[in-house]
Amino acid sequence: MSRHRRLTLAGSVTGAVIVALDGTVLTMAQPAMQRDLDASFAQVQWTSTGYLIAVASLLVFAGRLGDRYGHQRIFGIGMLGFAAASAAIGLAPGVGWVIGLRVAQGVFGALLQPATLGMLRAAYPRDRLGRPIALRTSAIGVAAAAGPVVGGALAAHWGWRAVFFLGVAPALAAGALALAVRMPEPEPPGRKPEPGREPKPGPTAAPEPQSASAARLDLPGACLLAAALACLVHTLVGIPESGWTAATGLGVVAATATGGAFVRHERRTASPLVPPSVFRSAAVAPALGVLVAASAALFGALFLGTYLLQDVMALDPLQSGLRVLPLAVMMVLCAPAAAVLMRRQGARRTAVAGMALLTLGVLLLTRLDQGSTAVGIGGCFLLLGAGFGTVMVTATAVVVRHAPADAAGVAGGLQQTAMNVGPALGVAAATMLMNLSAPAPATTGPPGEGPRWTGDAFTSAMGPTLTALAAVAAGGALLAARLPKTARRNPHAKAI
Question: Which band of pLDDT confidence, cut at 50, 70 and 90, is reported for residue 452?
Answer without folding.
Answer: low
